[in-house]
Amino acid sequence: MCTVRGLVKTYPAARGRRGAPGTDAVRASDGIDLEVRRGEIFGLLGPNGAGKSTLVRQLTGLLRPDEGSVELLGHDLVRHPERAARLVGYLGQESTALDELTVALAAETTGRLRGLSLRAARAERDAVLDELGLAPIAGRPLKKLSGGQRRLACFAAALVGDRPVLVLDEPTAGMDPVARRAVWAAVDRRRAEHGTTVLLVTHNVIEAETVLDRVAVLERGRIIACDTPAGLKELVGDEVRVELVWRAEAPLHVPEVAALRDAAQAAGRRWTLRLAPAEARAAVAAVTGGPAFAALDDFTLTTPSLEDVYLALGGRAEGAEGLVKA
Ligand SMILES: Nc1ncnc2c1ncn2[C@@H]1O[C@H](COP(=O)(O)OP(=O)(O)OP(=O)(O)O)[C@@H](O)[C@H]1O
User: Fold this and answer.
1) DSSP of 75-134, one letter per residue?
2) Atom 14 (ligand 1): residue with closest C-alpha?
3) Inside any domain, residue 101
4) Does 198 share its domain with 158?
């Protein structure tokens, strides 16, 4: 369905101007091979700057690779990037092109641009606004909406005209849980009813886990893992995640707590540890059975999630500095 071979894209170095420092060249795609199957919901996961947007912009014909090939539904998109518009419904990270339009007109205009008759564009517009709960704000201009509402309106527009492939760059960024659920339900419905293939860029690993068939993890322009969520989880084996939340400072004077310090990733009052099951049981027994218990606010034990895989592979913990040890 979509085959990518040896994709390379380097952004050139820029000279600094007016005393500002220049930037080095960035190899944002560094030899990417990828195969997405028809009807698959395929995720691209990775830290900021890993090269996810650069990759999807090459898959949608918006950015020309330096080297390599992109074939989408039998079309060579490096040679014929203009063909992507007929194949792909693309939701980019920014929406400025539609900002002046109302929610209804953004959806209708997209339909018209995709070749629908006026009557068909209006029918699809009404159906998609209803489906996503946007009818009450259909008459409002995008630029006067909240970030999450604007995102949902752009998502609605991307769905109009029924493209066989949807490429969605962080579709649920800034959305509340109700809107996020509506997005995932709409994606699922298109796959079930039309066999739509979906390529999804996301940071939200926990949310993505429930909808993705396969995931590629990107880091510094390379794919460092690609498998089903379950297959990726096997990489972290039977590790258990232990979360300890302290009332205030961790009681490091308690030897059992001090012993866990090196294995823990600390974020404020919260410690996260990844341990073998027996070690996890021992750790919980130690902090709940002894003098540390008075300092403990809460604890949880969970089996591995896609986020644990991501971290184990060397991804950056959200909000944390530096790489997390495998
Ligand atoms: N137009 C550009 N010119 C120069 N460098 C760029 C440009 N766009 C992106 N980059 C650089 O290329 C690398 C990959 O960027 P890209 O936007 O593809 O990452 P990403 O994985 O989508 O990140 P995020 O999760 O933050 O959206 C980064 O180092 C970024 O700084």
Assistant:
1) EETTT-GGGHHHHEEEE-S--GGGTTSBHHHHHHHHHHHTT--HHHHHHHHHHHHHHTT-
2) 51
3) yes
4) yes
